[in-house]
Amino acid sequence: MKNLILITLPILLISQIVFGQNEKPITKGNFITGGSFSFNTEESKIYYPASLIMPRQEETDDTRTFETDFYFGYFVINHLTVGLKTNIKTSNTIQSWIIGTSSNKIIYNDISLGPIIKYYTNPGIFFEGSAAFGFIKNVNFNNSANWKDNSITGGVGYSLFIAKSVALEPGIKYTHTNWPKYVDEGSKETIDGLNFSLGCQIYLDFNKQVQNDK
User: Fold this and answer.
1) Which domains does the chain have, with CATH numbers?
2) Contact at 8 Å (CB) between 114 and 82?
3) What spatial distance separates the first Cα and last Cα of the chain, rounded to whole Å?
């Protein structure tokens, strides 16, 4: 019986996935909504050499970043959807020094909105591109500052249908961000990086619902 269960469970899971992939509602006129999230933690160390007035120092930056986005789109043609995406990102960095007891806390809160386009292939692979325009609030040494940012993102992922109209979407995204006003007027900072995320999308077929109501 145990062996039968071990054999049956994978078959049921594969059948569920295959059914979902064959019945993907990625057709013209359907809507899609959902979102994704990612969490990243990193620690960096900066070493300052000793000088005549200052011994050797070591700075440690401990950063935790949480990012989530919400997406709503419409299939203008089969496999191709266009829509809007809202992104919310918060980053918390603790700076500490091995010499001395002082520490510094830096918080970035970023919210942005922009267009997104996604193309789904028959095997379930999708490609996406988006642009975003947002606002950042920085809190550092009990002081705050606000400035605007803009970014472009490209990515690839896979839609794993766990139900007929619900899919999990793991993906990899590359983002280039510009911060035109970082510290002083005219200064600029650019950030490039990869992001691994897990999204959940819900497909809505309003046309089918209307026909059923009739």
Assistant:
1) 2-213 (2.40.160.20)
2) no
3) 48
CA distances (Å), 23 to each of 10, 105, 164, 206, in order? 20, 50, 7, 16
DSSP state of 53: S
**CA–centroid distance for 58 within its chain:** 32
Average pLDDT along the chain, 214 residues, taken 10 residues at a time: 38 41 73 87 76 74 86 94 92 74 77 94 92 84 75 93 91 85 63 85 72 46
The confidence score (pLDDT) of residue 98 equals 65
In the numeric block, which tokens belong to residue 30? Answer: 């359907």
Question: Given phi > 0 = left and psi -120 to 50 = alpha, else beta, which region is 23?
Answer: alpha
Tokens of 17: 């996935």
